[in-house]
Amino acid sequence: MSKNKSVERRSVEKKRKGDRRGKDKRISPQERQKKRRKRKRKRVLLLCFELFILAILCVVGYGMLKLGKLDINILNQNNLEVYKDTGPYTNIACFGLDSRNGELEGGVQSDSIMIVSINNETNDVTMTSVYRDTLLQQADGSYEKANSAYNRGGPEAAISLLNRNFDLDIRNYVSVNFSALVDVIDALGGLEIDMTEEEAFYCNGYAFETAQVVGKDMQKIDEVAGTQLLDGVHAVGYARIRYTEGNDFKRTARQREVLQKTVDKAKKANLLTLNKIVDKVFPQISTSLSITDMLGFAANILNYNIVGTTGFPYAVTTSEDVRNHTGSYVVPIDFVGNVSQLHQNIFAEEWYEPSIKVKQIHDDIIYLTGVSENAQAMQTTFEGDTGGGGTFEGDTQ
Fold it and tell me: pTM of the entire structure?
């Protein structure tokens, strides 16, 4: 019985195949050609899709290979003293180190301290320099200059200092030394900087020292007022000048100017130049950013727009009369007001109410320095600074 059923099944299948062949024979040549073209288009689309996926994998693989040159340092988030989430903003601490022997993770002073804040909804970026001599509360409750935290405890201590004193939520950092910035600027073909005669004079002096540290030759620039094309050692030398009008406050303005010009020029550079920069500079950078984070920033780099550059605290004076301290310090005037203005300028938080910790630091600074909220503020804002300035509401300047 089963044998007969099997024979019948084969007979039915043969009939169906015969019917299909009969139908195919009845299809016109134009229709057969149309079907072949359709199958060909499908194969081409499939091939294009596969090539597209392969290209993406190659780009990602290349990016990961390059990013692998970085010194990635995973931080203990419990040590960062994050105060509160600032919403759609990514805040990164950037440290320029006075590193003569390649140290990147502590044991050296942070010659430059900058908070880079990215609005992830608008791609607007602000750069806020923290004056390195600012009297701030350290991890043990003592008060010292802002740049001493990196020396004491590396990036974790430096980030926690910023979060503790300014009510911030910084979780990542990037640290570079002089040599890295010199190499970047040289690879980009230098920067055009407009200088005074005095700045040109000091630029040569600092460039000579910088050239010795990074092991490069140095040719003097003309010590005259005007715009000059500066190579890496001179651009870094220019950013380190502090013995002119404006002192350290003007120095941080120069640092922001050099950084902004470098970013603007890098955005226009070709792939060959960028590849050269990556190979030369990445081994000289320490960061806590993940490869995924950096690939995301790289993909969006052309959309970022620097909308604010300023120094912080906004209202300050200097003092050599700090209780139980020696040396000269930058002293914030009305620390609570400074922090409130910082949150307004970066995060658009109107009438920000600082934390109890910030209010305690405010009182401690007045006790240690005798500098009250009514003190006269020094000039800290210069041509080219935007998005904050050196005064805030209630300032007596």
Answer: 0.76
